[in-house]
């Protein structure tokens, strides 16, 4: 396994992506709206682990609930579904590496295989969506992860060195610095690609959970003691994430070069870089991904100009042009139709076509390959405000 991992990681060191990156400021109208008005955009939706779990618990069973979701998507014109198959170091499908989620343990069939086959039967692409590092987000009690969890095994085996693979910090996380952790994540990606005829493998924005130096102090001190010229903490963390991203890309392509590998980072390039240690510019420049899908979960009247939708869109279009082989899709936010933040309330409570307008801009922009909506339950809610926004979106999709 370590030999395979070395092969999958080696391009990180051979690529030599050290060229200066363009300045992301100063976008022009040409950067913003280009291309002819054609509906060639991919139209996707995220179905989260909580939505999947709800389907698994339904009285009618997962097959009925997921079939209804696929019917909803087909009627609206959705042609891609991002299914959350691993949210907490666990698995929706039978795995040799991760424990199957409790809700699916008693099933006499593979829920993900069923979902994949059903989607493909109606022409919908399927992206398997994973969170690489998260084990528990609300507890530091490893017992809650269960004895089959890789994190539990590392903390309870006879090898004290394995304890470094797991970090407790307002939750439990796999340690991005450890080779064993990267090996597990990369092999997990390869397992999915080997077992299932997926169209894509997808990661979202959960990387380092904090900027606190205490989070991985022991690992960093160990690294500094062994390195002749150690990187600064922030650069070291970004390097750790880069190796994981590059390794996952190579694992996917090792199995099937036609599987798309995508990441959905948060909206702010700076916050990704400085707070999550996600160097999205490097990923695009070096071709570690096929698609970048930034979460532009903001409206047109957001009080901070930097986060207004059109300004974010310009920034990401500019960034995506660093490497023409990396496609840009845009994450949109139906979940904000019922806003909880004061900064969002006025616009989203009174607006009836925000998602439709944003989808239209993606649709007619020659630099944008599609959009993905977060998430299924908000998009298809029966609440009147959600229904109005969905019907307006449907007009954009069907035009």
Describe, in short, the structure shown.
This protein has helices at residues 2-15, 29-32, 49-57, 61-76, 111-121, 150-156, 179-195, 217-226, 233-255, 269-276, 280-286, 309-320, 342-350, 354-364, 376-379, 384-398; strands at residues 42-47, 80-86, 125-130, 134-136, 166-168, 172-174, 200-203, 260-263, 291-292, 327-332, 370-374. With 399 residues, it is α/β, with parallel strands linked by helices.
List keywords for this structure.
single chain, 3-stranded antiparallel sheet, alpha/beta, 399 residues, 8-stranded parallel β-barrel, globular, 12% strand, TIM Barrel
Give a structural overview.
The protein has a single domain, classed as Alpha-Beta Barrel (TIM Barrel). 44% of the residues lie in helices and 12% in strands. The protein is built from 16 helices and 11 strands. The chain has an 8-stranded parallel barrel with strand order 1-2-3-7-8-9-10-11, surrounded by 6 helices. A 3-stranded antiparallel beta sheet has the order 4-6-5, with helices on one face. Strand 9, helix 12 and strand 10 form a beta-alpha-beta unit. It is globular. The termini are far apart. About 7% of the residues have low confidence.
Secondary-structure blueprint of this entry?
Layout: H1 2-15, H2 29-32, E1 42-47, H3 49-57, H4 61-76, E2 80-86, H5 111-121, E3 125-130, E4 134-136, H6 150-156, E5 166-168, E6 172-174, H7 179-195, E7 200-203, H8 217-226, H9 233-255, E8 260-263, H10 269-276, H11 280-286, E9 291-292, H12 309-320, E10 327-332, H13 342-350, H14 354-364, E11 370-374, H15 376-379, H16 384-398
Helix pairs in contact: 1-9, 3-4, 4-5, 7-9, 14-16
């Amino acid at each position: 396994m370590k030999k395979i991992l070395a092969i999958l990681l080696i391009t990180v060191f051979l690529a030599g992506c050290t060229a200066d990156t363009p300045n992301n400021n100063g976008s022009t109208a040409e950067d913003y709206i280009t291309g002819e008005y054609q509906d060639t955009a991919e139209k996707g939706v995220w179905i989260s682990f909580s939505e999947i779990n709800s389907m698994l618990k339904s009285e009618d069973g997962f097959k009925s609930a997921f079939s209804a979701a696929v019917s909803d998507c087909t009627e609206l014109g959705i042609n891609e579904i991002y299914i959350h198959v691993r949210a907490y170091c666990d698995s929706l499908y039978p795995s040799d590496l991760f424990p199957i989620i409790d809700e699916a343990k008693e099933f006499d069939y593979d829920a993900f295989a069923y979902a994949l086959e059903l989607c493909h039967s109606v022409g919908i692409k399927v992206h398997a969506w994973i969170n690489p590092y998260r084990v528990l987000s609300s507890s530091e009690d490893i017992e809650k992860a269960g004895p089959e969890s890789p994190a539990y095994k590392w903390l309870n085996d006879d090898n004290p060195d394995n304890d470094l693979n797991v970090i407790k910090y307002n939750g439990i996380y796999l340690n991005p610095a450890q080779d064993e952790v990267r090996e597990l994540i990369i092999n997990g990606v390869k397992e999915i690609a080997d077992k299932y005829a997926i169209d894509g493998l997808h990661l979202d924005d959960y990387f380092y959970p904090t900027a606190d130096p205490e989070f991985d102090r022991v690992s960093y001190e160990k690294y500094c003691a062994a390195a002749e010229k150690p990187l600064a903490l922030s650069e070291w963390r970004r390097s750790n994430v880069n190796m994981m991203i590059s390794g996952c890309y190579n694992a996917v392509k090792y199995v099937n070069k036609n599987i798309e590998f995508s990441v959905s980072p948060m909206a702010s390039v700076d916050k990704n870089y400085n707070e999550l240690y996600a160097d999205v510019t490097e990923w695009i420049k070096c071709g570690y991904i096929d698609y970048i899908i930034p979460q532009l979960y903001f409206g047109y009247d957001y009080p901070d100009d930097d986060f207004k939708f059109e300004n974010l869109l310009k920034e990401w279009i500019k960034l995506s042009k660093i490497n023409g082989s990396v496609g840009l899709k845009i994450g949109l936010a139906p979940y904000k139709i019922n806003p909880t933040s004061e900064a969002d309330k006025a616009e989203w409570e009174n607006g009836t076509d925000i998602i439709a307008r944003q989808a239209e801009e993606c649709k007619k922009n020659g630099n944008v390959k599609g959009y993905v909506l977060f998430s299924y339950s908000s998009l298809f809610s029966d609440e009147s405000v959600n229904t109005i926004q969905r019907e307006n979106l449907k007009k954009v999709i069907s035009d």
